[in-house]
Design a protein that fits this description.
Elements (H helix, E strand, L loop, with lengths): L1 H13 L12 H8 L3 H13 L3 E4 L3 E4 L3 H28 L3 H8 L17
Antiparallel strand pairs: 1-2
Helix pairs in contact: 1-3, 2-3
């Protein structure tokens, strides 16, 4: 659950729902709004703080650190290259779909966001 929550927060940062300098909801508020155990939220927040993506202001709350979004974007690009791409190539080979056919699907005019309730890492 901690990793899923991490992915949700990353998605919120990358899609613009959260901006650098924004205050994160309190652990309790975030937990209540997402029906998650507060300890799980605290663990995810701590993970981001350890990586320098969020900063704590004592007595005020947690905030998105300057440069966090670009750093996360670079980390997620590396994840896509190192993890997603090799698995996708293998899957396409298994199902007999060419890269061109797959790219045509990517280029289709579908504009709905499939990640409205989850993260892109859940796929």
């Amino acid at each position: 659950m901690h990793l899923r929550l991490r992915a949700l927060i990353v998605t919120m940062l990358l899609d613009g729902s959260l901006q650098e300098g924004d205050q994160l909801p309190s652990v309790r508020a975030f937990a209540a709004s997402h029906h998650i155990n507060p300890l799980t939220v605290a663990k995810a927040y701590q993970h981001f703080q350890d990586l320098g993506h969020i900063v704590a202001r004592r007595g005020v709350g947690m905030f998105i650190a300057k440069g966090a979004i670009e750093k996360l974007r670079q980390e997620e690009r590396a994840f896509a290259s190192d993890y997603i791409a090799p698995r996708l190539r293998h899957m396409l080979k298994l199902i007999g779909m060419s890269h061109k056919e797959f790219l045509a699907e990517l280029d289709s005019d579908t504009v709905e966001n499939p990640f409205t309730t989850t993260s892109y890492r859940d796929c």
